[in-house]
Here is the input.
Amino acid sequence: MTALGHILGLLGHTMIVIDHPELLEGSIKGHEGLRLSPYKDTTGNLTVGYGHNCNDVITEEVAEVLLASDIGTALAETTRLLPWVADIPSDARKRAFVELVYNMGEKVLGFHNALACARRGDWPGCVAGFHNSLWDKQVGHRAADLEALLLTGTDPL
Here is the structure.
């Protein structure tokens, strides 16, 4: 099944049936071209990918597909940026680092002290490094939740 077929199946819309959706997909790809960075199209709409209009409202199903893709990217980026996270025994701590990368990308590397403490297994020091930052103030309860995961290495009951 093509990506298009998978997405259409997830959306569950009642729609016309096309015998060859792969031909439609190929035609649209050829006409739109692939742009991986957002750009303004000829009518001024913010657009990305194969002409996807970013001004359009999306459905929850589409948001779920995007989230799954973004989580995959965060997992890969965590592996690239913080390869030592794979060796942490606690799944809760691994998930905290993946969410940190999801939230701030490569900027996580700016937390030198917190990351150095984590590599040593100094979890109170790690948490202090994140807690005493502008990020902590900007993201509200997310910081408290992730800091708790890092400190305890377990999920809250």
Residues 41 and 134 are 36 Å apart (CA to CA). The first helix runs from residue 3 to 11. The chain has a mean pLDDT of 90. The first strand starts at residue 35 and ends at 40.
